[in-house]
Amino acid sequence: MKHVTSATPGPKKSPMTLGSGWTTVVVLPAGSASDSRGSALLDRLSTPVPGGRLVTSALMSALITNDGRVFVGAVSGADLEQVAASGHGL
Q1: Around Cβ 7, how many Cβ atoms within 10 Å?
Q2: pLDDT, greater one: 79 or 11
Q3: pTM of whole model > 0.70?
Q4: Which of 39, 42, 54, 56 is the Cys-Cys partner for 61 at CB 3.0 to 4.6 Å?
Q5: Minimal CA–CA distance to 60: which of 70, 68, 51, 69?
Q6: 48: helix, coil or strand?
Q7: Do 1 and 66 form a contact (C-beta atoms < 8 A)?
């Protein structure tokens, strides 16, 4: 019988929220959207913006940054870009 060892992963970063009320933005840590199988679909559904890709709808926007973080909120794409750049809520 083989003995299998597993590395203990480091502490996981948790999602966090920035802002309050209708301008709350949820921030998922880097690696949350790292599934490359969906990258072709993401390319079709999103718009390239400086620093990442943006998906917008009438209800919400999502920004996936080049470093792997994900910002989601019921705000405009421009607002998400501002939050991502500043690290602060609106």
Answers
A1: 5
A2: 79
A3: yes
A4: 56
A5: 70
A6: strand
A7: no
